[in-house]
Amino acid sequence: MVKNGFIAKTKTTLVVLLSLLIVGLVSGTAFAAEAAKDNVLKEGVASFSEVKLVEFPNSTKKILVYTDDDEAANEWSAGRLYYSFSSDGNSFAVPKALKDDGTWDMQPFVYVDGNVAVVTWTDANKGFDEYTTTDAMVSSMGLSIAIVDSNGNMKSHSFMEGGLEDTFYFGSRVAKSGSKLLVTWVACTNSEDVGRTYRVEGLYYDPETDRFQSIDGSVDANGNPKPAVFVEDDKYIPSYSAAEINGSVAVLFEEATDGTQFSDVLRKAVYGGLSPRGDEVVKTKQLKLVSAADGVARTVALANSNPSVVESDLSELAFYSSGTISKISGFSSGAEGFSTSKIADVSRTGSVRYEIISKDGSELYIAAYDPAQQDIRLYYRDGSSSGMPLLPLGMRGEDGIAFPTEPSIILSSSGRLASLWAKGPVGDRSSIALVYSEYEQQELQKADYGAVTEAINKATALNAEEYVDFSHVTNAVSAVVYGKSYTEQVEVDAYAAAINDAIGALTLRGADYAAVDALVTKAQALDADLYKDFSPVSAAIGAIDRSKTIREQAEVDAMAKAIDDAMAALEYKDADYSKVDEAIAKAGALNKAEYKDFSTVELAVTSVVRGKNITEQDSVDAMAKAIEDAIDALEKKAEDDDAGQVDVGKKSESEEPQASDEGSLTDADPQTGDSDTFMFLIALVFLSGASAVFSRIMKNIVLAGKWGAYAKAKNH
């Protein structure tokens, strides 16, 4: 069962496939128009599948042709040419081989003439295997032709067999020449010789009768029409175009100037999966022009201009050289022998492959194909004085998607640009898919909002709360007007510039320094003189950077922590114990035996607590004062006060009686009662039996007598 393509798929499978192969129309920096219809016709086609797409006149019917590997054949003979017919222009029938002979097919060309499509291609006349040499492959190459009518019916056959008389053929084309169809090709002789020569030949072809005839009616010895030779004895011809100019067939062709041979190209195509066109192999080439009228080869463009033949759906000879696409407008008698007219300036895309798509007999679009840039760009003739400007949007433009071979693009009867291409992920040839796409012209002619989208995405990614004023960005985004055409691209670019300018002018809010300020205030309230080293705090405060934004809040928080940590690490200076030490030294110099009670001094000294810091200086000073006060409160013992003696009174030295020699009392008479006291004491002495006590008592008695005499004298 076939659904809208070659392969019947479930909806889920189709979605997955489209996601893998068509995803990314607007991704990265590549933006493209969105296809109105985009169908994956076949997945897993040959890595360098060649594709051709045509539409029958005044109809929606289409035919597509593409090369692919025959999975049933060996890898050396796998290249096949398939076609598919579409009656409605959207759904394509299951493809069929144009000529299923088990041999290698390549280089298809399709031309629609009325109700038939003429397909020609390069076709080997034998199968290959791993033992087939390159020269053997080359020499087997011939040409085949097929006719497909507007109902999808097809018939095919070979018309130029390779390997005959050491000649092989390739690169066939079909063009209109007057009322007839001209089929041309490249022939090469001396295939075993490195000095092989190439030529361009041609015959007229009638699709109704499927018969060929010579240009001038001549035949060979076998009665077969004899091909006309338009170019002869030339180097390898990678590409060419033929058309009628000034009533005569003219051929514009690329001539390889680097020694490349067709065998080199074929080897890369069969063994390496590269394009049979040879773009990757041929490094340098020049353009030449030959008219059948005189057979003279004229140089059109030298190799240093990177010239190439340009495909066109018009009967014209167009070419690229040095950033310009021109066409041969006629032959002249001038030095060059021909005249040209400029079609378009394509310097913005440069040296790539180009294809001209026409409308009403004039060039409407020019498609620029470059696998390296991964998109298809279009130049458009809008009738303005600007010529053919490059449309802002590409037809594709998917990042990571490659187009191994040149797509085929037509302007359909519905007014859409229809394209057939092989495409897939870069570097993954196993995932190449055959894709049919349709684009509305209006879609392709829109302005490119890619830069606007990027700018808006950039703005959206920002946190408006981080900025002082985000309104200018918001206003710039709101000012964007969508749906403008390519002629208004300057305005669209201005939208992007306005958004980017507004973003560039944004000012981030400052970081929150509240914690920093609080800690600075706390630090400034401290007395630096109280600490052993206040410099870390000063350094942390000095390191504050007030320029930080809200996005650098962590750095500001680190500043606060640095101040806090520095303050936490502060150490007070030691208290001053010098007065304490002086008081202790003063106490130590005293003879405690001389004092009645020295314990208060000793207690004050032992009560001293060492290790106090400067904030406890008052406590330390109090310790010194306690010692000093204890010293000041000391009372000395009396000079005659012995241990255990009862103190009978205390007199000043001026009042004490002076002892005479031998301890005699004073001369004063004793008072009444003195004799009785004396006798009582004598008796006490004898009773005690202690001479020492006696001695002391006697001393007191003497003193007492003196005191009595002193008192008597005083009373008088």
Q: Care to describe what's here?
A:
With 716 residues, the chain is α+β, with helices and mostly antiparallel strands. Among the domains are: 452-504, no CATH class; 514-568, no CATH class; 578-632, no CATH class; 661-715. 25% of the residues lie in helices and 29% in strands. The protein has 15 helices and 31 strands. A hairpin with a 5-residue loop joins strand 19 (285-291) and strand 20. The radius of gyration is 59 Å and the shape is elongated.
List the defining traits of the structure above:
alpha+beta, disordered N terminus, 716 residues, 5-stranded antiparallel beta sheet
Strand-helix topology:
Blueprint: H1 11-21, E1 26-27, E2 30-31, E3 37-43, E4 51-55, E5 62-69, E6 79-86, E7 96-97, E8 105-113, E9 116-124, H2 134-139, E10 141-149, E11 154-160, E12 167-177, E13 180-189, E14 197-206, E15 211-213, E16 228-234, E17 240-245, E18 248-256, H3 262-272, E19 285-291, E20 297-301, E21 308-312, E22 318-321, E23 324-331, E24 338-345, E25 353-359, E26 362-370, E27 375-380, E28 401-402, E29 408-411, E30 416-425, E31 433-440, H4 441-444, H5 450-460, H6 471-478, H7 489-504, H8 514-524, H9 535-542, H10 553-568, H11 578-588, H12 599-606, H13 617-632, H14 674-688, H15 691-715
Parallel strand pairs: 21-25
Antiparallel strand pairs: 1-2, 3-31, 4-5, 5-6, 6-7, 8-9, 9-10, 10-11, 12-13, 13-14, 14-15, 14-16, 17-18, 18-19, 19-20, 21-22, 22-23, 23-24, 25-26, 26-27, 28-30, 29-30, 30-31
Helix pairs in contact: 5-7, 6-7, 8-10, 9-10, 11-13, 12-13, 14-15
